[in-house]
Amino acid sequence: MYVLEARNLVKTFDGIRAVNDVSFAVPEGSVFGLIGRNGAGKTTTIRMMMNIYLPDSGEVVLQGSKIGHEFRAMVGYLPEERGLYQKMKIIDTLLYFAELKGKTGKQIIKKANEYLERFQLIDRKNSKLEDLSKGNQQKIQFITTILHDPEFIILDEPFSGLDPINIDILREIIMELKQKGKVIIFSTHLMDFAEKMCDHITMIDKGKVILNGSLKDIKAKYEQNNISINYQGDISFIKNNPMIEHFEDFGNSAGIRVKNASQIQELLKLLLEKNITIRKFNANEISLQEIFVELAGSNGVNNFYQEVRHA
Amino acid sequence: MLNKRTLAVLKRELREKLLSRTFILMTVLIPVFLFGILGIQTYLYSAGSDEKAKIEIISGSQQITGALQKTLSQMKDVKNNKLKIEFSTQTKAQFTQTLNSLKGNILSEKLTGVFYIPDSAVNNKSVEYYSKNPNNNSLFNKLKDPINKALVDIHFTDMKLSEAEINFARSSVDINSFRVSKDQKIKEEGAGNSIVAFLFTFLLYFSLLFLGTMMMRSVVQEKNNRIVEVLLSSVNSSELMTGKILGVGITGLMQMAIWLIPLMVVISSSFFMIPNEYMPDMNFAQVIYFLLNYFVGLITFLGLFASVGAIFDNDQDAQSGVWPITLLIMIPFFIGISMVSNPENQIAKIASMLPFASIIVMPARLVLVEIPTWQMVVSIIVTLGTMIAIFPVAGKIYRVGVLRTGKKPQWSEVIKWISYKY
Q1: For domain B53-174, which architecture applies?
Q2: Among A246, B31, B178, B246, whose Cα sits 20 to 30 Å from the Cα of B418?
């Protein structure tokens, strides 16, 4: 079942269509990735989902009805550009942002302390934000996002600017939230992360959706059936096998294409049964990056790779 | 609009502003500063008369010299040696020579100045004064009357007038000012109301500018630190703006109330022996009006300052972009101050009923002159109307502006924002 839907969102800034007829649906209990290069329209889309921008046309629908104010209280939002009051005490900051979501009282204080404990910041709770390192400030920002126990967690480029250790902590928490049945939506231009973490993705480029669906289906659709092997023995027998579409033998290595991706395992089994020594078996599953390359075209690709390298 | 979220923002603003060092410092320093100004003025005025001076009075005839010697020696300053006067009698030609020889002394300030009182002065009271500082009012004020008296005496000597008649001629006009008000009571007017009018105008000017700038900086800071996007995921922009403005507004109201406590104590009790001359003639209703008017005005200007803050993303740009708003405070301030010397000027009358200016000019006018009811009503309607009118526009600019980053926008773009759908 879909809990949150974007329907035909359009947003124009100064004559430029930042978001052009974007539609997608976020299924219950999923980790949903909004993927695309910088400037593709991810942040604008997310801001429309957060009701920060009003769309020129289109709507965001929550369980069948258009989102309103109550949605804000159900969401934890971590914007791409982060910021907190530098002169405010950590504990005050956490309680203030929870209060804005309508959560006050002992329960929240207790929870704030628990999170601080977990992030090993409990002894700094009365320090000012400005006295923390940047990484620790990010942790505080993340706690403000989830402290009020939201049903939806929207993270805009959550991994940007994090060191590997913090990335791990964040990933761990995202997975934990998923276990609790929360819906997690994040945007990223890092295909690698999306591929590892998401159940569903929507890929946008130049304000338009270019790919949409569950990661499994998408992969199946774009899967390549190429296999390269290094071997020892005689493999000429597979030439006439019905599952083989194409076969090229180079003596020690061979390139094989099966008709169907599901036949890859079958092929491996067959080779082993015939006592062929396999040194290397490479069934190259297609990566999201490659799918993106295929869809966005070469012009997009060059820029995209540059960004990936810089990231 | 005043819901839990707005209140949360309001509370945070209040806590941050009320406990800030700047707020506490300003609350204490402004009265000190104001009394300082009054004190310095008084000091400078009296300091001029404290200086020792040496002058020469040269007159065209023996008779004048004699009369002057007689009247001037009665002066307090002369008796206690603060003012030394040398008398001599010379013709105009002789005087020109003497003046040349005294030039050195005048320039080196050994001699404060030289008066020349020609024979003709007995009929036309025209005398000459030569000095390095020829506009020494505090000296003139002291010497005017005795010289006048001597000249009058000589003028009337041959006319066989009675002593009483001469005394009348000797005295200068004594102006006593009375305030005419509707309730037909005519009261003697002191300097008290002028001081209060000045005080009101100055406090309004200072406070609007100070808190406005504070507001602007706070918006710029939130925009600059990107906190605003986190905030906007929880509250909408009008809740945020309302909370912030009310927070600073209440802070300002409390500050102003603290500043006005001395005034309220003075007008409500006779415990402080304020000389009648300085006792302001006003009532509590006027103070309450002042505070309410201030609050409405403050809210109005905070809205304007907040929207300017939202346009820019750093303090420098905001400071240089805020001048149109600053002018809306400065010009009425000068009009208000001008009223202290002439309360009935037409510009002030009109300004007290114009948008923005009404906030600053009307309180001072109210203290200085009797205001027809209709003008009062117009002023209040204009003040409230201004507030109501600016908020849809300021709110829109704020909403569009706070999420804008990058290039500094042109004014023409800002005007376009107003029609944006956001």
Answers
A1: 3-Layer(aba) Sandwich (3.40)
A2: B246
